[in-house]
Structure formats: structure tokens, C-alpha cells
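lol forgot to send this yesterday, sorry. C-alpha cells for the thing we talked abt
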């Protein structure tokens, strides 16, 4: 065995080399890279060749990695799906804990362990760590109902396991008094209430005040994560519970496809999570296994029990809720890895004298085996599930999209980009950013330079979210014509554009550029005026004119609204104007993802203006399902709404003009004379 490296620079260099080489080797062998990092820990650790020691630095970074995994699971969990399937999560969580727990207690008691040791060992078999969750997230199945249920069930299993750990530890010290139970339950209640009451208030204030500063955003999120994890220990819980609750509390404030979420995942996947996997591998002591045959017997027993219990829970859940075979194996793969609560219970049991060294090493063997089985199964069956879903019948709501963002105002650029990230499908092509310079101006070349600088800022912002961008620059005497030409040339399906709220007498709705754009296009156009960050929105208010359900683009704005609500955790309040609500109820039920929706019928526009408009709150955003003049569902009130909403309490709104039949080619309008008032006014952002 070699002497462990003590130079901090060399330690970090060796770790980085392992993080680089191990996944590459595993990829060649078609094995998940996570497994390679665990094996690397076994080889280079203190019980292997001894290059690296499991010193406080490795333990610290490994603990951060564990908290990161649980935190990201809380961030990415589909809250509406979790609410919808909460009974399933509870059912699965109790099955996933109790089956291994009961099997473990009976078998360990039969093997000759005392009752306290049998209960503790059974409880650690019931817990699980979401070690393979990053694989499910990377493959795009994080919001599948089986994954959502497994994530929800993990908080049940880990909480029960850690509560039993506290009770067993208390029983060995004769501390199971009434005061012990009251203190534990009261501290837990206060802690959970504080997490879900205080963190959202602080987060809303922070993102409104400093939402455009990327570094501060990341530091704020990290502060919330680790402060929450620490106070979990103060409340008598494990840090992983605090990390998960912190993720849930921040869930609605961090978009799935945002630069902030990308930074969080990048740092975790590149540094902290690999350190956790490396530290798990370092726990393995092969010498004890060879010197003490009893360790192999216990290891075989606990591995068999945990596999039987976890698979049994997944199989029963599959039968109850009629899940597919792929979802069965996905649930099993996510819930079989043992690491977090298992390690905590094992070390406490060893310190209390309940476990001997052979038992500790047997549990570590189980951790190693389950941490290899879980990622392999998730990688394999998540890919099958993705392929299966991609072969489902085509639906209009799943059509690929090309999104364009015409940009003129640097102050509204980031809010428009955030909206475009939501509109854009994760599998769609790049976003297209456009800036148009007027060729009639004396110094149009300088305008082109300024336009390219603005587009460069857009590219930089999108790069933080790993969203590819195509920069487009046009020079045209008419800005609207330049936008229309760009739409035609790049076959754009959706346009996200801002409005500055300024009006003048000759203008009809928004202003010259936007009015012309709506008249000369048939694509879906979202005209937005956003006065606050989207992630601080609590409620989306949707206003739908009569007859909108007959439009060919009926489902498009519903999908945009539900995607927005799902990502920011907002509720949806729909107001239908003088129309039957049944078609709209069916439309909102048909379109994914899940969101909490209420639909109300209004008898007149006057009722909206007098009763509901004054009740808008500052953290509301209004989405109007509008219509172009002369098309189905058009009403004169739709042209007055932008100036009315610009002065409302919330001041944030989006006018959505869905896809229309392409009756008039925009190419036929290029030679039309345009009034000078339109040319001289740049009303879009």
C-alpha cells in the first residue's frame, strides 16, 4: 500500500483526473459513469492502493455532493404532478420502506442480532438515495409520473429511517421520555413551517431585486441550501431532509431551462457529486471481507433483502396503478441505491455498539452493489421509456417549434429570453434572435454594430442555459418588413416580442411595428410587457374571448400557459368571455404538463373590467388569448386591453396571437407604402 498524498494541489489534481478518466472508461464498457467513480474510490482509497485518504476534505466535498443530489431532486420535481400523485407517492413510499424493513427485521433477528440492532438494520434497508436521479434528469424523464412518485417516496423512506435511527439511539441511552417525543415533533413542525414560509418570501424579494446578477443568484441558492441543511440538524433531522425541503421551497423560482439551473447542475455534476461517489467507494474495505467470512454472509443477506423489498414495492405499485414495465424498472432502479441514510444509520449503529466491523463492511458492500445496480437500470430503462414515448402518435401540441426574439431594448432582453425558454420545446431547434437596423438612416452601419452588440448579450445569456442561438441581423427601411422577412427566411413558428407600453394617437393597438407584424404574419406571436421576473409570479390569469376554441391555434397558447405555470409553480385562473366552458376545460385537460386550473365564465367584458380587473395582484401575470382583426374570436375590446393592462396593478401581461390560416402572403405586402408614423416609431422592445 502506498503512502497517501498530502499535497492539496496534487490531491485535487488526482481527483479531477479520476473524474475525467473513469466516465470515459465506463462509456467504452457501456456502463454508467457513476459506477466508475465508485470503483475508482475503492481502488485509490485508504483500503485500496492508498493514494488518497478519506480525509476531512473528501468527506466535506462528498457531503456537499450528497446534499446536491437531494437538492436538485427537490428543484426538479414536478410540483403539480407531485400534488396530483401525492397519494401514490405516499403509497409507494410506505411500501418501499416497510417491505425491506419487515423482511430485514425478521431475517436479522433470526440470524441472532438483538432487537435494537435488527430494527436499525431493517430501517436502513428501507431507505434509499436518489443516486441515479441525475441520469433520469439528463435523459428527460424527470417529470414522468413514476420518477415523480419515486422522488416523493424517497422523502417518506428517509424520514422514517432517520426517525427510527433517532428512536433507537435514544433507547440505548434511556432517553425515550415524553420530553424527547415532544421536542422532536415540535422542532420538526417548526422547521418545516419555517422552510416553506420564510424561504419563498426571501426568494421573491431577492429575485425581484437582484435577479439579473448571475453570480449573486447562484450564491443565494447555495446559501439557502446549506443554511436549510444545517438547521435540519438543529431540529433533530438529517441534512438531506433540509436539502430536499430547500429544493421544494425554491422549485417555483428556478426555471428548468434557465442559466441559474444550468449553473447549479453544472457545478454539482462536475465537482461535488463525483466527490460524493468517490467518498462512497473509499469506505469499502476488501481486507475485512477476506478475513471475516461472516461479512460475506451478512452482505449476501442484506443485498438479497433490499433487492426483494424494493422490487416488491415497485411491482405492487405497478400492479395497483397500471404502470408500464419500463416504469417498474425505473422505480426499482431509482429506489434501490443505498447511501445517505444508510451510511448515517450504519455509523451510528457502530458507535452505539449495535454493529460490529463485519456488519459495517457488509453494509458497505450492499451500498456498493446497489449503487451499481440502480444507475445501470435507470440508464437502460429511461432510454427505453424515451424511445417509447417518442413513438407515440403525433399531436398538434407536440409540433416542433422555431422561436424568434426580435430585440431592441437591452433592459428587457433577459425577461424576453426567459419567456422564450419556456415557449421553446426542449427538443426544438435553436432560438433565433433578431435585430433590425433602418437602412434609410444616414448611419445605418453604426446601428448594425449596436444591433450585433445587443445580440451578443443575448447569446451570452442563452449560453448560461446551454440554449443554442442563431443571431440574425437585418437592414431594412421598414422594421416590420425586416422582421417579416426574417420569419419567412428561417421558417419561424413562434415570435416572442416585447412592448414598451408607449402609445400615440394614430396607433391602433401597440404601435406601428407590432401592428404591422400582426397584420402581416400568421405565426403565433407573443407580445409581452413584463415588469417583474417571471419566477416571482404566483398566479397566471388567462382571459379568453368567445369563440377562441374554434381557432386552428387553440392549443398553442394553452401549452405556453401550462408550461409557464408548471415551471414557476403558479396557479392558473381562466376567465372565459360569454362562451361555454366545457371545450376549454377539455383543452386544458388534454394539454400537458400538469397545472392547477380553475375556469370561470363571465357574462360580459364589463364584468371583467369592473369586478376582476381591480382584484389583480402585483405578483399576477395576465395572459390574453387574443385574435387578429377579422379572424374568429376577435372583439374590439381586445385592442383596448393592452393599454388597460399596462395601467393595472400587476402591469405584467402577455398578449398571445395564435397561429392563423395563412390567407395573405407577407411577401405580397413588402412593396406596400407604409405611413411615416409607423416608420418613425419603434414601439417594440
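and heres what i got for the seq, position by position
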Amino acid at each position: 500500500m502506498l503512502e497517501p498524498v498530502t499535497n492539496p494541489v496534487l490531491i485535487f489534481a488526482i481527483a479531477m483526473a479520476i473524474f475525467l478518466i473513469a466516465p470515459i472508461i465506463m462509456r467504452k464498457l457501456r456502463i454508467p459513469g457513476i459506477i466508475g467513480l465508485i470503483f475508482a474510490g475503492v481502488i485509490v482509497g485508504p483500503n485500496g492502493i492508498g493514494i488518497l485518504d478519506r480525509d476531512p476534505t473528501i468527506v466535506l466535498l462528498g457531503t456537499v455532493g450528497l446534499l446536491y443530489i437531494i437538492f436538485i431532486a427537490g428543484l426538479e420535481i414536478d410540483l403539480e404532478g407531485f400534488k396530483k400523485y401525492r397519494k401514490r407517492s405516499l403509497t409507494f413510499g410506505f411500501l418501499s420502506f416497510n417491505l425491506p424493513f419487515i423482511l430485514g427485521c425478521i431475517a436479522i433477528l433470526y440470524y441472532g442480532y438483538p432487537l435494537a440492532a435488527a430494527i436499525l438494520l431493517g430501517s436502513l434497508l428501507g431507505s434509499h438515495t436518489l443516486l441515479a436521479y441525475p441520469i433520469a434528469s439528463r435523459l428527460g424523464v424527470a417529470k414522468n409520473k413514476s420518477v415523480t412518485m419515486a422522488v416523493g417516496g424517497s422523502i417518506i423512506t428517509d424520514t422514517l429511517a432517520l426517525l427510527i435511527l433517532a428512536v433507537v439511539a435514544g433507547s440505548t441511552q434511556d432517553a425515550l421520555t415524553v420530553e424527547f417525543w415532544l421536542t422532536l415533533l415540535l422542532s420538526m413542525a417548526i422547521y418545516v413551517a419555517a422552510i416553506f414560509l420564510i424561504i419563498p418570501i426571501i426568494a421573491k424579494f431577492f429575485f425581484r431585486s437582484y435577479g439579473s446578477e448571475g453570480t449573486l443568484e447562484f450564491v443565494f441558492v447555495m446559501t439557502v441550501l446549506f443554511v436549510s441543511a444545517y438547521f435540519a440538524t438543529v431540529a433533530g433531522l438529517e441534512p438531506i431532509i433540509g436539502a430536499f425541503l430547500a429544493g421544494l421551497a425554491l422549485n417555483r423560482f428556478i426555471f428548468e431551462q434557465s442559466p441559474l439551473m444550468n449553473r447549479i447542475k453544472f457545478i454539482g455534476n462536475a465537482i461535488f457529486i463525483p466527490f460524493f461517489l468517490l467518498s462512497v467507494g473509499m469506505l469499502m474495505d476488501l481486507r475485512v471481507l477476506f478475513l471475516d467470512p461472516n461479512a460475506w454472509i451478512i452482505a449476501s443477506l442484506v443485498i438479497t433483502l433490499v433487492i426483494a423489498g424494493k422490487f416488491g414495492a415497485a411491482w405492487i405499485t405497478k400492479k395497483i396503478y397500471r404502470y408500464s414495465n419500463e416504469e417498474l424498472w425505473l422505480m426499482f432502479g431509482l429506489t434501490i441505491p443505498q447511501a445517505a441514510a444508510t451510511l448515517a444509520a450504519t455509523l451510528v449503529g457502530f458507535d452505539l455498539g449495535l454493529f460490529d466491523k463485519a456488519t459495517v463492511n457488509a453494509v458497505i458492500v450492499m451500498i456498493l452493489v446497489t449503487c451499481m445496480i440502480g444507475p445501470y437500470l435507470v440508464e437502460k430503462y429511461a432510454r427505453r421509456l424515451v424511445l417509447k414515448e417518442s413513438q407515440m402518435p403525433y399531436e398538434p401540441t407536440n409540433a416542433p417549434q422555431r422561436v424568434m426574439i426580435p430585440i431592441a431594448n437591452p433592459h428587457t432582453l433577459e425577461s424576453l429570453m426567459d419567456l422564450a425558454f419556456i415557449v421553446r420545446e426542449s427538443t426544438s431547434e435553436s432560438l433565433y434572435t433578431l435585430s433590425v437596423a433602418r437602412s434609410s438612416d444616414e448611419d445605418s452601419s453604426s446601428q448594425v454594430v449596436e444591433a450585433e452588440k445587443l445580440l451578443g448579450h443575448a447569446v451570452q445569456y442563452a449560453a448560461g442555459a446551454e440554449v443554442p442561438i442563431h443571431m440574425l441581423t437585418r437592414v431594412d427601411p421598414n422594421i416590420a418588413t425586416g422582421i417579416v422577412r426574417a420569419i419567412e427566411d428561417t421558417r419561424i413558428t413562434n415570435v416572442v416580442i416585447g412592448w414598451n407600453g408607449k402609445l400615440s394617437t394614430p396607433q391602433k393597438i401597440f404601435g406601428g411595428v407590432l401592428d404591422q407584424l400582426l397584420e402581416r404574419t400568421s405565426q403565433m406571436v407573443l407580445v409581452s410587457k413584463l415588469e417583474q421576473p417571471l419566477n416571482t409570479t404566483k398566479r397566471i390569469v388567462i382571459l379568453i374571448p368567445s369563440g377562441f376554441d374554434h381557432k386552428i391555434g387553440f392549443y398553442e397558447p394553452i401549452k405556453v400557459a401550462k408550461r409557464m405555470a408548471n415551471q414557476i409553480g403558479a396557479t392558473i385562473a381562466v376567465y372565459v368571455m360569454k362562451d361555454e366552458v366545457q371545450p376549454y376545460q377539455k383543452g386544458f385537460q388534454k394539454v400537458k404538463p400538469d397545472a392547477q386550473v380553475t375556469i370561470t365564465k363571465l357574462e360580459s367584458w364589463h364584468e371583467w373590467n369592473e369586478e376582476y380587473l381591480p382584484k389583480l395582484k402585483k405578483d399576477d401575470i395576465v395572459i390574453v388569448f387574443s385574435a387578429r382583426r377579422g379572424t374568429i374570436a376577435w372583439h374590439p375590446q381586445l385592442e383596448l386591453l393592452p393599454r388597460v393592462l399596462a395601467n393595472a396593478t400587476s402591469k405584467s401581461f402577455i398578449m398571445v396571437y395564435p397561429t392563423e390560416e395563412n390567407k395573405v402572403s407577407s411577401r405580397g405586402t413588402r412593396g406596400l407604402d407604409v405611413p411615416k408614423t409607423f416608420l418613425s416609431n419603434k414601439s417594440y422592445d
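The chain has three domains: 56-268+295-385, 400-529, 531-658. anyway ping me if u want another try
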